Amino acid sequence: EIKLKDGQRCFLDFAKVHEVISVSHAGKELGVAWEPPYRIEITSAVKAGAKSVEIKVGNILAAAFDHYKDDKLPSGIFGPVKTVTTETKEP
Fold first, then answer.
1. Cβ–Cβ under 8 Å, residues 86 and 9
2. pLDDT digits (tens, 9 = 90+) for 32-65
3. Counting CB atoms within 10 angstroms of each CB, which of 3, 8, 15, 23 has the fewest?
């Protein structure tokens, strides 16, 4: 469980994503990232008492046909996913 102090903001930080990621809570999109930094603010969900968020990863169309090749295109989330809190406006 994440507890925020007044003025703090909370973000999900994804090390690396291929190709696009979106995060939502209770049917509301919280953010989308398609280039570094792969960081999406989740402050509103944390303040609402969320225990989970929905994460969707999308890839390029070429990856859908990539299963025919030996050297497959990367797809998904790579590396750790961390929560980051900050006191400032920008992380």
1. yes
2. 999 999 999 999 999 999 889 999 999 887 766 7
3. 3
How far is 90 from 8, CA to CA, in rounded Å?
Answer: 11
Which burial class, exposed, middle or buried, applies to 41 when counting CB atoms under 10 A from its CB (0-12, 13-18, 19+)? middle
Q: Dihedral sign, CA of 61, 65, 54, 43?
A: negative
Three-state secondary structure of the chain: CCCCCCCCEEEEEEEEEECEEEEEECCEEEEEECCCCEEEECHHHHHCCCCCCEEEEECCHHHHCHHHCCCCCCCEEEEEEEEEEECCCCC
Q: Return the structure tokens found at 1.
A: 């469980």
